[in-house]
Fold:
Amino acid sequence: MKKKYNHILFDLDGTLTDSAEGVTRSVQHALKQYNIDATLEELRSFIGPPLHHSFIEVYGFSPVEAHRAVEYYRDYYRDTGIYENKVYPDIPELLDNLYRNGKKIYLATSKPTIFAEKILSYFNLDHYFTTIAGSNLDGTRVEKREVIAQVLEENDGLKAKEATMIGDRKHDIIGARAWNIDAIGVTYGYGSLQELQEAGSTMIAASVPELQILLLN
Structure:
């Protein structure tokens, strides 16, 4: 018997929106401050994980350098990169159907909350969400398990056994598992099927219509 989810947590980048252009151009801008050239395609791994970690893991930056690189990233992102973004087809319809069917919808992203709120408002999706939780601008609460913890803290009636986390990268799956929450991996985003399976996804959806079937049928 398929499980019924009443509380649905969504990742943002690679799950609700295709933010590849804005994120990679912002990373490219940051790297140029260190005289590092990289193509946008080479920077796709930065989409999803905490930026600070990616600068350290991919380019060997020190924690101090990574912190500064994130600031350079935001110099471009806050006014330009944030709008180099688009909602995936069928996402507005999915959110509307979930909302009309009485589901509680939450956002759990490693992106700073202030940017996440701005993006959802820009695309007129913010009214579907009970809580919009993200990281802090000072570099805290960037791990997905910490963001999910914030959602749980703000919503006393949210029971883990009735919830699922939806995301396109392993960090979404691992973060949900830390709280015994089921996780649905989506392969239309930036993570691979192998990555999502190895992280322990409860189920996999290859498209938004397929995701809707898992959540509503």
About this structure: The mean pLDDT is 96. Residues 20-83 form a domain with the DNA polymerase; domain 1 fold (CATH 1.10.150.240). DSSP finds nine helices and eight strands in the chain. The chain has two domains: 7-18+87-216, 20-83.
